[in-house]
Amino acid sequence: MEKTLVIIKPDAVERNLIGQIIDIYERNDLKVIQMNMMKPTLEQVQKHYSEHQGKFFYNRLVEYLTSGDIVVLLLKGKGAIERVRKLNGKTNPEEAEEETLRKRFGIDHTRNSVHASDSEEKVAYESAIWLAKS
């Protein structure tokens, strides 16, 4: 079984959408195996988005993700990475497919409610940032 990492972003947490989002994942045969609600640090967010450093949207992303609480989920299921990315939809909610999480809950390209890892390598990298034991 494959694992993937999901972040329920500040806009969704603020609007009390955590349960609805998790319910959609669970109804699609994905199992929550780890969950953590937290206020991300600047260092965590900078490391998470390090590949985007220097791009025009980098500062906006960092500022947004540090603006409130997030929920980090580690999900497990057959083909979890691809299935979660399909459930989430395109990054821009206006372009996302109907019934995807971003179409239903996203506000704009930045405040799009959810993030998901796009590869096994990213799952490992992002898990080390967000789910590291203290």
The tally of beta strands, per DSSP, is 4
Contiguous uncertain segments of 5+ residues: none
Arithmetic mean of pLDDT: 96
Helical stretch tally:
7
Class derived from helix and strand content: alpha+beta
- Considering the protein shown, what is the CATH homologous superfamily? Nucleoside diphosphate kinase-like domain
| CATH hierarchy class name | Alpha Beta
> In what order do the strands lie side by side in the largest sheet?
2-3-1-4
Instruction: Describe the sheet with the most strands.
Output: 4 strands, antiparallel
CATH architecture: 2-Layer Sandwich
Provide structural commentary.
The protein has 134 residues and is α+β, with helices and mostly antiparallel strands. It has one domain: Nucleoside diphosphate kinase-like domain (Alpha-Beta Plaits, 2-Layer Sandwich), CATH 3.30.70.141. 41% of the residues lie in helices and 19% in strands. The chain is built from 7 helices and 4 strands. Strands 2-3-1-4 form a 4-stranded antiparallel sheet, sandwiched between helices. It is globular and about 35 Å long. The model has no long low-confidence stretch (mean pLDDT 96).
